[in-house]
Amino acid sequence: MFKFDRMPGVVCLAALILLVGCGRGTSTTPASEVELPAELILSEPPAVAVDVKTALASAREGDDIVVRGRVGGRGDPLVAGRAVMTILDLSVATCDANSDDNCRTPWDACCEDPATVRQSTAVVQVVGPDGQPLRAGLRNFGGIRPMAQVIVQGTARRGPDGKTLLIDASGLYVAAP
Q: What is the pTM of this model?
């Protein structure tokens, strides 16, 4: 006969079996990240770089380009778990430039006209052989963080709207915070 004084032990055993059994063939962790290539971070800046606005106006699909900007333009310009970030033209003021602004995310340039911000940003991505962004975050890689000035060397692509500039990065130089 089953005794109720053994109930806590039976419940614990059943829960353990259920947890082990349900975990087979599945994972609760996201797909594993790949390592970003160390040679992606350049030790010296490329000799000539254009600003983001110039690149937006002149870069064509497949062009080799070198672009200078600031990690920003969004509340979180570094996509978690993907080698993707947005960069903002250095001419666009960030909120920290306003002495009376206590913005927690000054890199998003929320103090500027949203249309100006949209027309001054580019998307940088590190892609694999399949052309898709690598499953690895860029945050803190080689000093990359919001507000860092970067120089991106890569290949220009245009987004589906024809206006968005995508840069498939082959080299990143982190110039300053």
A: 0.78
